[in-house]
Design brief:
The complex is a heterodimer of chains A (176) and B (624). Chain A is mostly helical. Chain A contains 7 helices and no strands. Chain A is globular and about 60 Å long. Chain B is α+β, with helices and mostly antiparallel strands and 624 residues long. In chain B, strands 1, 2, 3, 4, 11 and 12 form a 6-stranded mixed beta sheet that branches. In chain B, strands 18-13-14-15-19 form a 5-stranded mixed beta sheet, with helices on both faces. In chain B, a hairpin with a 2-residue loop joins strand 14 and strand 15. Classes of the chains: A mainly alpha (176), B alpha+beta (624).
Chain lengths: 176, 624
Amino acid sequence: MKLSSNFFEIFAIPVAWQVDRAQLHSRYRQLQQEFHPDRYASGSETEKRLAVQTASLINQAYETLKSPLKRAQYLLEQQAIDASQESHITSDTSFLMTQIELREALAEAPSSADPLAALEDLRAGVANSYLEQQAEFAGHYESDNFDHALNSLAKMQFSSKLLDEIEQLEAELEDL
Amino acid sequence: MALLQISEPGQSPQPHQRKHAVGIDLGTTNSLVATVRSGMAEVLADEQGRELLPSVVHYTKEGVSCVGYEAAEHSTSDPLNTLSSVKRLLGRGLNDLKTFGTQLPYEFAEGSGGMPKIKTAAGLVSPIQVSAEILRKLAGRAEIAFDSVIDGAVITVPAYFDEAQRQATKDAATLAGIKVLRLLNEPTAAAIAYGLDQDSVAERVIAIYDLGGGTFDISILRLSKGVFEVLATGGDSALGGDDFDLEIANWIRQQMGMGEDLDPTEQRILIETAKLAKEELSQLDQVELEVLDWQGILTKDTMHSLIDGLIDTTLRACKKSLRDADVSLDQVNDVILVGGSTRTPRVSEKVAQLFGSTPRCNLDPDKVVAMGAALQAEVLVGNKSGDDMLLLDVIPLSLGIETMGGLIEKIIHRNTTIPVAKAQEFTTFKDGQTAMAVHILQGERELASDCRSLARFELRGIPPMVAGAAKIRVSYQVDADGLLSVTARELTSNVESRIEVKPSYGLGEDEITTMLQDSFSHARDDMQARALREQQVDADRMVEDLQAAIAKDAEALLSSEERQCLVVAIQELKALRESTKEHRVLARQIESVAKASEEFAARRMDASIKSALAGQSLDQVEKG
């Protein structure tokens, strides 16, 4: 079973970096109202199987378009650029230096006077850079500068991963 | 239903007929069955008017002697043959029992594939068989109420149940001869029963705190316009009110100066005493205890000190789920209490403290899950249009595979909305390698040995190539019940590897078939006839569906050659349906027609998705 639908096409929105989250969410629910397996619970085995596959595709498309990181990856993949996580790294040395400093700050946070406040400071800073990197990606992508867009994506991956780790550590500290 | 519901109105194979659907809450301590009558969910009672059915089965030499209240009466006199709380064992391995099995006084033996079996006077029984007895009893209660067989059931499971536990629940239903419409998460069922979607047009975020006898769940949902969207779920599938009883029982034991080696009868007496004391302390500040030849006093404060640690564990899980849902405490509009153990005032007190609001519990916390399941069953069986209700649930624990060095690589992350499909590509690492082992696990820990083993399988028949040349694509599909299926394909040669996913702890397909045949052996001919009739219905339906699909879409989507192939396949199926008396033969032919029409189905699905939102202006979509 192969499905050829483009994720943007499924949601009837233009292939672009900018996505209206509220519209996406509303259309997502509209599609699931129609294709969710619960609508076919008393159907034949073939219908049920198709519904599971269709609903899975809609979920995957929604997940992809909702997340800035996955959406950026998907947009580049549509340009036949391999944007999977391991395939490229940024060569921007000052960026890499900053990353090392941020990681050190993360490692030191638990032993600071107020670990949660330290983490929150760190999180706010990284979240801010993440937004800047997204804007940078958008600029490159919209001017068809895909090589530079790929570089911005690599930076977004660093930030996204760091944000996950900050959150993880926050959870651990709160649990103590 | 544009895509798959192909029959034209008025041409459906049978006139609309009201079907009998039930919701079943298969609980650790008590179980219930409910149905919808005149639009209202209603728990069905037994002849004595009792709504709960204790989840207890008593065995004698002759087999099952009784289920429910009658069985519970044997619990102190015949503890080894009176099985209760088996939900704790569903989908578990013998190894898991070492961590919590000591609470259960039974003698265990190893069944096939590491699944525990319980030694009883009637021989070895599996937790799945015991659960099937409870389900059968409940189905019987419903059949008396309907004076008819039931057409389908929604069975609830703790949201935090892993795949193996879900599969075991479904297997139990299959053994009991019940058609499962859906496995529904208990907190989600409770949300439906409260019907919170109807009293507000605005979006609401609700937290459902569900503490049963043996399981704890927390779910964070967003409700709007009839859509129940689970944002995150968490919990502990081995923590419940029974653990409160156990803590109190242990305290009593220590006060009595007794060691840990109690006999099963003494253990039962202690637990019963503890349970009673816990209930009385809901009203009183202290209770006098009399156990065997010991007397003492348990105060409310002492009880709190015994159970607070357990309640705090549940509150930590609440915070974790809120974080997963990306929702802050003050964004939660409602907190709902579900499960008999939330009757312990200390629980609601501490939950209220955490969320800063008084939780709702106006529906009976014992009945609310079964009622919600009944409402969902009514929609799924086709009695009620479900246009106004949709459930989007999530997978509670990440799924992954074991990689080099015993680590786990996550493939589907926890709290991903289901159904979900993911694919992964592997390659060979030796020249000429023709087989590959895959180990599927579920859990959040880094090490494979710390996660639950779901299944192991071997990919065989990979064409021999140099190392790294073969590309094997393994696809994982989690359906709306949270159940996993796996397929694999070698991409360079397009060889489909037959894979057999062997559940780590559960019944194999064969075992279920054998057990079913055993239980029906007196009526095997009936079974044959019934199986044939079912296949004939399926065949008719398939012929009709395909003919309608061809009439509608063949022109646009099929070449004349492709169309001809399908027409021939349909004719063959029609002929066989009339001539054969062998249900397996017919089933095989149905399967082969399904395969032949798969590409057509995929194209129709594609076209259908593309047209679902097409032609709508932005405004129309927003209003819809």
